[in-house]
Amino acid sequence: MYDDNSHYKCEKVLIAGGDSSDDLSAIHASTELYDQSIRLWTNTGYLNIGRTCFAASILPDGKLLISGGYDGVNLTASAELYDSLTGRWINTTKMSWERWWHTLSQLTDVNVLALGGDYHFEPSTCELYNTSTGLWEPTGRLN
């Protein structure tokens, strides 16, 4: 299974989406949360778009941002936020470019930088997710 896992508040691990085939044809929208304090997996909300090969980053407010990936048919620029209080995924604005195999990096100013990845564009493109406004904006390029 191909998936992205993100450590959530250091005591929990969230497994989201993924693929259970070698040819990326069985994309999942399910998510599970592992709580190490009770050693138990529980199902938690479904992604709005099943995806694999996406990136994830924990935001300062505790929400988890995921972006991009492959939905079984196309690469996507969509992004979602996981709210641990409700166990639900909420759509947020789309990135400027479809990306997969990219990186999300939390910056010291609390914003998130999306960079690189692969698709039919120059992989040196970068964009910034503004955690205050929930908007993506292009920013600089990798050399």
TrEMBL record:
It comes from Rotaria socialis. It comes from the Eukaryota. It holds the Pfam family Kelch_1. This is Uncharacterized protein. The lineage of its organism: Eukaryota, Metazoa, Spiralia, Gnathifera, Rotifera. Keywords: Kelch repeat. The keyword rRNA-binding does not apply. InterPro entries: Gal_Oxidase_central_sf, Kelch-typ_b-propeller, Kelch_1. Gene3D superfamilies: Galactose oxidase/kelch, beta-propeller.
